[in-house]
Specification:
By secondary structure, the chain is of the alpha/beta class. The protein has 3 domains: 50 residues, no CATH class; 211 residues, Metallo-beta-lactamase, Chain A, CATH 3.60.15; 54 residues, no CATH class. It contains 11 helices and 12 strands. A 7-stranded mixed β-sheet has the order 1-2-3-4-5-6-7. A 5-stranded mixed β-sheet has the order 8-9-10-11-12. A hairpin with a 2-residue loop joins strand 1 and strand 2. The structure holds zinc ion (ZN).
């Protein structure tokens, strides 16, 4: 490798430091060190590989119930470093084949997920459920057989309406990670629950995080896939939120007997923490905003509100709270002050 390539390679590596030295591929570099190469040669080789080789998410499957695996994403914002992998996906081994829940943020992620499923279970994929139309949950669809991809009719129409704009945004945010990614619509509009390979997958048509959020209960294992109706230790996102409806959906999820809940973002666990935390945070956000607007505070003032100590385990705060204030302010203001001119505040 000549000097010019080395410099170019170093720059390329800089752009992906987060993933190159993250939990997965760091082990590969370490192994080469042990191999006894001169440090200079090692560095050149590592740089060359990173510059020329493909970006990788290094997805890992965690077993959370019999035959049930989750692929937990970092609780971060979209970035060039994480390639849009901030999301949880999951797959279930049934007698008739594999059932997948959500496909991730890109074609690249979808392909890696499909390979991970093959390596873990080695059966055909027979169903792919999409929980809602946010880009990190469905842009991996292209890696799967469209005939198998299913969601609520409203989720499908939401993807149809907004999918292209999401892809454009994701290309801006993630760059090369998105290469080749296109919108693929779910082909199956779900009207009822399904039994697949001895598992009853109960389709729960809810909403509030977006206008259509599908949760799924696997009645056989007691695993509740909540999509983005539940977040855990990662601040909920609200660009399409209807808070009153979201609370109703959380109430509905709470009533469903389950052993483990898989949130859209954050760790999967039993015990009700994801539902309780999502509800507590959204309630605090709304109450804080309404009382601030009542006191005449403007949007910038409200964004400076301190985050209560009890939310200290939640990542991407205060940033996500400030985004929510921007999303929700105008509607709440109009709600609270119907006689004030719309330009106020
Ligand atoms: Zn979402």
């Amino acid at each position: 490798m000549d000097r010019r390539n080395f410099i170019k390679g170093t720059a390329a590596l800089g752009g992906t430091l987060g993933s190159v030295f993250g939990s997965g591929s760091g082990a590969g570099l370490g192994a080469r060190l042990v191999g006894g190469l001169a440090p200079g040669a090692l560095w050149l080789e590592a740089v060359s590989e990173a510059a020329a080789g493909p970006l990788e998410y290094n997805l890992k499957a965690d077993l959370i119930a019999p035959g049930t695996y989750v692929v937990i994403g970092p609780t971060e914002y979209f970035s060039h470093e994480n390639g849009g992998n901030i999301v949880n996906t999951a797959f279930v081994d049934t007698d008739d084949g594999v059932v997948v829940i959500d496909t991730g943020p890109s074609l690249r992620y979808g392909n890696e997920l499909r390979r991970l499923i093959k390596k873990t279970i080695n059966k055909d994929i027979v169903r792919v459920y999409i929980t809602h139309h946010h880009p990190d949950h469905f842009l991996g669809n292209q890696a799967f057989d469209q005939d198998h991809i299913a969601s609520l009719p409203k989720v499908i129409s939401n993807i149809k309406a907004e999918g292209e704009a999401f892809v454009e945004n994701m290309y801006r945010l993630e760059g090369d990670w998105m290469r080749g990614t296109q919108v693929v619509l779910p082909k199956v509009a779900l009207k009822s629950s399904e039994i697949i390979g001895g598992h009853a997958f109960e389709v729960l048509p809810l909403g509030g995080h977006t206008s259509a959020d599908m949760a799924i209960l696997d009645a056989k294992t007691g695993v509740l896939f909540a999509g983005d109706l539940a977040f855990l230790d990662r601040a909920p996102t609200t660009p399409h939120a209807d808070l009153a409806r979201w609370h109703k959906s959380l109430g509905a999820l709470e009533k469903i007997k389950h052993d483990v809940l898989v949130p859209g973002h954050g760790p999967a666990e039993g015990g009700g923490r994801a539902i309780a935390q999502t509800r507590d945070y959204l309630k605090w956000l709304e109450t804080m905003m309404r009382s601030s607007i009542d006191q005449g505070l403007n949007m910038t003032d409200i964004m400076a509100t301190p985050i209560p100590e009890r939310f200290s385990s939640i990542s991407v705060l205060p940033g996500e709270m400030q985004r929510s204030v921007a999303h929700l302010y105008r509607a709440m203001e109009e709600d609270l002050l119907p006689l004030v001119s719309k330009g106020g505040g």
